[in-house]
């Protein structure tokens, strides 16, 4: 359903909802997936991002997302300087090879060991399509829980049990894995806000590696 | 209180004897489950951002990222001050303010995308010029944003406001139609006149392509925001004079959508056609990117 504030809005830092606001939101989601302090980040830009990122301030917006700014923050344009002053190392790499995904695509590599691929699909809306080389798909429209786990029996049952105990209704749930018995991700999009108690309880299971919550909107 | 097209909106307004702005407020309360106070305070916040963006362009020296625009609002307003404006004070302000918001947008300042960032100058241009010249209160202007929002809501539901999908007619054209309807309610015109003015505004810009140089929201976008603001005022004036509108709003929205979808790919925000593809457009593109 469309809200009047989708039409008179969003309130945003220009110049482009897809190249600026959307880029920031992808980076913010990537940042939320990492529980440790971020020391360095590399952005690999594809498609239209690769061609026009400077003219649209996409580089500043991406870094602003890593720095936890929101799309209304007037300091986005100073993101490069703010990152430098905080000692955050950053690098932009242009990859102009043809891509299969949406023209506005970026791969974000944090601390050399976490990678997230996102697409800015228009009007500031986004889609995360890959985490650590595993294909996923979610938009951040809902409260989204990303559980990193080992592919063992009973893990999913444990997660859903915890959620139902806290009366959280699951809107969408998907399980993604590398290969049988290896690392896997469960992505849960929920109707209600998810609090830290639920997350702590989910972490109790021995096969759960990490749990991250993404609430962007 | 939901409405899917202008017919349903008209029916809601006449059954309850309310203006379009009120119908939109009630629809939003229903959709979002928020209180009237919350919704109005959120819109007041949006109007404050619009005002700030206009005044920033008049008081600061803003430099766009691509370097193709900057300082235009001040030049236009300065010209208006010596009473020689060929547009008159009201129109001079409306176009100057509209262009100013695009300066803020392209220098990474805060704007309200209404309905998009590329067309973000039209509504603030018209609204703030009218408020200053006719001394309307902030409260009244904020209410009129709901009227404009209702028109944008109908176009988003039944067509598109995206340049990549429907060309500039869908961005600046929609913003212009939204502003035209708001002017009518502001001037005490009835619901039918609001829709007639919107339909006229869309008709006047029908077919306008999206062809930004280097893909940036600078040239020709900034001047087209001035066009959108003046077109809203022209369309409102025509309607308020009692001149008949032949094609109803819903049909005009469909026409705009069909025209948009038949525009070639090169003329929908790809920077491959129109002004972007001129030798000068290509040269500027190479020097920027």
Question: What is the gist of this entry?
Answer:
Chain A: It comes from Candidatus Epulonipiscium fishelsonii. The complex is a heterodimer of chains A (217) and B (289). By secondary structure, chain A is an alpha+beta fold.
For this entry, give a set of tags.
heterodimer, A: 217 residues, alpha+beta, 60s Ribosomal Protein L30, Chain: A, Alpha-Beta Plaits, 2 domains, 6-stranded mixed β-sheet, 4-stranded antiparallel β-sheet, 7 helices, 11 strands, 30% helix, 35% strand, globular, B: 289 residues, mainly alpha
- What is the helix/strand order of chain A? HEHEHHHEEEEEEHEEHE
Q: Which class of secondary structure composition applies to the elements of chain B?
A: mainly alpha
Runs of chain A with pLDDT <50, length 5+? none
Number-wise, the strands of chain A total 11
In total, the number of domains of chain B comes to 1
Which percent band covers the strand fraction of chain B?
A: under 5%
Briefly, what CATH class of the largest domain in chain A?
Alpha Beta
Number of strands of chain B: 1
CATH topology-level name of the largest domain in chain A: 60s Ribosomal Protein L30, Chain: A
Can you count the helices of chain A?
Answer: 7
Radius of gyration of chain A: 17 Å
């Amino acid at each position: 359903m469309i809200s009047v504030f989708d039409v008179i809005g969003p309130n945003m830092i220009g110049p482009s909802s897809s190249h600026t606001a959307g880029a920031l939101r992808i980076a913010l989601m990537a940042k939320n997936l990492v529980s440790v302090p971020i020391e360095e980040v590399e952005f690999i830009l594809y498609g239209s991002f690769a061609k026009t990122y400077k003219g649209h301030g996409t580089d500043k917006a991406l870094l602003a997302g890593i720095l936890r700014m929101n799309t209304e923050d007037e300091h986005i344009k100073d993101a490069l300087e703010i990152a430098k002053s905080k000692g955050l190392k950053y690098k932009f790499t242009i990859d102009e090879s043809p891509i299969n995904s949406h023209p506005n695509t970026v791969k974000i590599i944090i601390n050399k060991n976490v990678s997230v691929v996102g697409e800015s699909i228009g009007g500031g809306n986004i889609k995360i399509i890959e985490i650590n080389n595993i294909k996923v798909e979610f938009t951040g429209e809902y409260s989204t829980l990303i559980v990193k786990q080992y592919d063992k029996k009973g893990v999913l049952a444990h997660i859903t049990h915890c959620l139902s105990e806290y009366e959280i209704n699951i809107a969408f749930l998907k399980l993604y894995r590398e290969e049988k018995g290896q690392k896997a991700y469960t992505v849960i999009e929920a109707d209600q806000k998810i609090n830290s108690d639920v997350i702590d309880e989910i972490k109790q299971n021995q096969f759960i590696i990490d749990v991250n919550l993404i609430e962007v909107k | 209180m939901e409405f899917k097209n202008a017919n349903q909106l008209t029916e809601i307004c006449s059954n309850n004897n309310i203006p379009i702005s009120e119908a939109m407020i009630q629809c939003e309360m229903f959709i979002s489950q928020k209180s009237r106070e919350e919704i109005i305070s959120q819109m007041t916040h949006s109007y404050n951002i619009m005002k700030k963006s206009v005044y920033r362009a008049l008081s600061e020296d803003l430099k766009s990222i691509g370097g193709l625009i900057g300082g235009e609002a001040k030049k236009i307003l300065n010209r208006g001050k010596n009473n020689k404006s060929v547009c008159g004070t009201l129109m001079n302000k409306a176009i100057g303010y509209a262009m100013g918001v695009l300066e803020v947008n392209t220098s990474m300042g805060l704007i309200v995308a209404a309905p998009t960032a590329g067309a973000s100058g039209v509504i603030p241009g018209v609204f703030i010029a009218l408020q200053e010249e006719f001394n309307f209160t902030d409260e009244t202007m904020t209410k009129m944003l709901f009227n404009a929002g209702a028109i944008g809501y109908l176009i988003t539901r039944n067509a598109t406001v995206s340049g990549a999908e429907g060309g500039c007619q869908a961005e600046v054209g929609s913003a212009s139609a939204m502003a035209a309807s708001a002017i009518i309610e502001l001037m005490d015109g009835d619901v039918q006149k609001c829709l007639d003015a919107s339909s006229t505004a869309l008709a006047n810009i029908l077919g306008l392509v999206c062809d930004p140089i280097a893909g940036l929201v600078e040239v020709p976008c900034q001047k087209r925001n001035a066009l959108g603001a003046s077109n809203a005022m022209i369309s409102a004036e025509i309607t308020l004079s009692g001149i008949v509108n032949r094609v109803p709003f819903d049909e005009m929205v469909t026409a705009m959508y069909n025209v948009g979808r038949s525009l070639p790919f090169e003329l929908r925000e790809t920077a491959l056609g129109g002004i972007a593809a001129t030798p000068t457009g290509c040269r500027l593109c190479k020097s920027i990117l």
